[in-house]
Specification:
Helix content is 16%, strand content 39%. By secondary structure, it is of the alpha+beta class. Strands 14, 17, 18, 19, 20, 21, 22, 23, 24 and 25 form a 10-stranded antiparallel beta sheet that branches. Strands 4-5-6-7-8 form a 5-stranded antiparallel beta sheet, covered by helices on one side. The radius of gyration is 38 Å and the shape is elongated.
Length: 433
């Protein structure tokens, strides 16, 4: 029998090691403590053993410089310096480049609300700047040695579909603004229904509209409005409805739900949303000639420089000056069966000349007050076989309907668009009731 004060080999191996590693390896060693556990024999003296264990040498590598990204939105009245301060940039070279270099001009032209991203080093120097310009393209400004360079990446667009509905209380634009409808979409709506609704004279309080349209986004930011897919305009209780249909890989048009073209051969008006200062009349007192005479056209009061659109496809027969018209453009349509006149212009579209073919909606000139005019306005005439007719009341010829070969595809493609309009129409009626 072993004496009681002698430990067995097994007990000798039962040592607990508590190893504590220092979190700040300044000494380059780790200290280990071994403590003899208590035993039932209770006869051995407790000892503390200290042993040094060398740590492996860690190779020193070059540390990567920390960089930081920060986002800010352009505020009204911002200067480049203001924006850089909020972005945390402290870099005189970058500031000089962004304030003066032509390649960075789009930054200085950013509209309020546009987002700008900056990548900066720990010392505040600028490494990169990214933003979407006003056209929706991504601009990247990067450090290039001791200077900077600017690059442009075409926008990767994502299309989202929105639905808006509104009611006319004062004016079309006031109603579309209240409904959150972008101005380019409001202009499209006016063009689509312009052959059926005279937006100068026919609007009434209580008229309403519903629009389904595309909005283009880039990196989550709205960049530009897309095409109207379907729309309804209720004018004086009569509902007009239009849906877009792609007739080929490159062309499309707007049609009624049964396939009739919404596209008229002529626009009802050559100017958007201007005020009619003088209508078509067989007897009107002329403010300059001071005598009664017929007024065989319509005058649209508008600021000098307002764009004038040709109302139908045609060929220019006159660009120049003529009597009381002042600067005037005359255009022949449909082989001379129809013709239009645009008078008192301040100037013509660049390069416009006699014999030139023009397309409906093309800008041909700008409002002025040349000739016999007391203020800036457009004098517009509409002629059939050489005889002036009231352009606000004459029946305009329709465009071609959906072809018989495409009728089935048209009905299938536009069914969902019509369903959306019906849903919003019924919801709107229920709300009004």
């Amino acid at each position: 029998m072993l004496p009681q004060n002698t430990l067995s080999q097994a007990h000798k191996l039962k040592l607990r090691w508590l190893v504590t590693l220092s979190t700040v390896p300044l000494l380059g060693v780790v200290t280990a403590f071994g403590i003899m556990p208590q035993t039932t024999f209770n006869t051995s003296e407790q000892k503390t053993i200290v042993e040094e264990i060398a740590l492996p040498v860690i190779a020193q590598t070059a540390s990567t410089t920390a960089t930081f990204w920060r986002n800010e939105r352009v505020q009204r009245g911002d200067t480049v310096a203001d924006l850089l301060t909020r972005l945390g940039v402290e870099d005189d070279i970058a500031s000089n480049y962004l304030r003066n270099n032509k390649a960075a001009e789009s930054l200085r032209q950013l509209a309020p609300g546009k987002e700008v991203q900056s990548e900066i080093a720990a010392d505040g120097s600028l490494l990169a700047l990214r933003y979407l310009n006003n056209d929706g393209d991504q601009i990247v400004i990067e450090k290039n040695g001791n200077d900077f360079k600017t690059g442009l990446l075409p926008a990767q667009l994502e299309q989202r579909v929105f639905m808006r509905t509104g009611e006319i209380k004062n004016s079309l634009y006031a109603a579309t603004d209240a409904a959150g409808l972008p101005d380019p979409v409001a202009n499209q709506m006016a063009d689509i229904f312009g052959g059926d609704v005279d937006f100068h004279r026919d609007l009434r309080k209580g008229d309403r509209f519903t629009v389904v349209y595309e909005q283009n986004y880039s990196n989550g930011e709205p960049v530009r409005s897309g095409r109207i897919l379907s729309a309804e305009f209720v004018n004086q209780g009569h509902a007009y409805r239009a849906v877009y249909f792609q007739t080929s890989s490159t062309t499309g048009n707007y049609y009624t739900p049964d396939g009739q073209s919404m596209h008229k051969a002529f626009l009802r008006s050559p100017i958007e949303f201007s005020r009619i200062s003088s209508g078509f009349s067989s007897s009107r007192f002329h403010p300059i000639l001071n005598k009664w005479r017929s007024h065989r056209g319509v005058d649209y009061a508008a600021p000098t420089g307002t764009k004038i659109k040709v109302t139908s496809d045609g060929v220019v027969t006159l660009v120049g000056q003529q009597h009381g018209y002042g600067n005037v453009i005359m255009i022949s349509h449909s082989g001379g069966h129809y013709s239009t006149v645009y008078g008192h212009l301040s100037r013509f579209a660049a390069g416009l000349h006699r014999g030139q073919h023009v397309s409906q909606g093309e800008i041909i000139g700008y409002v002025g007050m040349t000739g016999l005019a007391t203020g800036p306005h457009l004098h517009y005439e509409f002629k059939i076989d050489g005889t002036q007719r009231d352009p606000l009341r004459v029946a305009l010829p329709d465009g071609a309907p959906v072809s018989a070969a495409q009728k089935t595809a048209f009905l299938e493609t536009t069914r969902e668009l019509n369903d959306r309009l019906s849903m919003l129409h019924n919801t709107r009626l229920a709300k009004l009731d």
